[in-house]
Amino acid sequence: MWVKQSSLRPVPPYARIGQNAIDTVLTDLTESSEGPQGEVELVFDDLDEAQPALAEFLAKEFSRPQDEDCLALGYFLSLTIWLSFVQAHGHSLDIVSEDLLRETQELIAVDQALRESEPNDPIDTADVIGMEQPELMKFIHSQVEGILDRSEGALDINEVQVIYRAVLVEVLALSYAVRSPAGFPIERSEVLA
Length: 193
Known about the structure:
By secondary structure, this protein is an all-alpha fold. Helix content is 68%, strand content 0%.
């Protein structure tokens, strides 16, 4: 699909996350000897150590929703996303700085404003991110749709949106934090960004 314009920087092809990385992470989380809840707590401690600015951002964003199911969704999504990047990119994943988080939030806000000014454009910011990280966005959407279906309207949609926006920032910030492989050609879009 062709997108007229976007304020989002493109995600380089080498930074994309494949379904295999997501599947491996999900298997590891569910088969942990600590059990899923214990594993989530251990992994969040690892996230806090490896990506302090990102962990702080997520903790701040997740302090707003009050619903336990919504919070569980947020922690599950954010940890699965981060672990998928670790699984796929390992040592090529740089630390996400506060500046990168702020820039990513600004890019998303500008892109959303751009899309709101074009009421006939059916593509929203999440669609653009979905074109850049298709497997991660399919996973996120399936989890969000699943919790909304199971809640049968009992969840506050505004709280779900807080979680959704936070993980969109996480997906892009981590995508931008992946170092290019040695010898990988720099694309024109990266030079212009």
